[in-house]
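From the methods appendix. Each design record in this collection lists the tokenized structure first, followed by the designed amino acid sequence. Records were kept in a plain field format so they could be parsed without special tools. The example shown here is representative of the layout used throughout.

RECORD:
FOLD TOKENS (99 positions):
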């Protein structure tokens, strides 16, 4: 079981694997450089950076893909709800993962 303090790095690793699988290795490399200084503990900052890079619509689409795939890979049950909130979904998977 992952320690609570290790979760953001664990999430970071999962997110970049998902990005590579969905958008390709080159996009993953660019996004790793772009998000290099972002602390994944501050998920709002991740959201702001994704919006700056992809626009609001593109960021939300990517966030939905990341969350759905993250839940699947971590074996956490996922129920899609509207309106979609990246921060809330992240908190849910983080909570489920630390139990």
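DESIGN:
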């Amino acid at each position: 079981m992952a320690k609570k303090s290790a979760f953001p790095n664990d999430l970071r690793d999962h997110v970049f694997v998902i990005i590579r699988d969905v958008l390709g290795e080159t996009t993953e490399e660019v996004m790793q450089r772009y998000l290099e200084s972002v602390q994944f503990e501050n998920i709002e900052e991740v959201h702001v950076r994704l919006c700056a890079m992809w626009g609001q619509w593109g960021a939300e689409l990517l966030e939905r893909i990341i969350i759905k795939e993250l839940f699947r890979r971590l074996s956490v049950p996922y129920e899609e709800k509207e309106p979609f909130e990246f921060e809330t979904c992240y908190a849910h998977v983080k909570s489920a993962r630390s139990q």
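APPENDIX NOTE: The chain has a mean pLDDT of 84.
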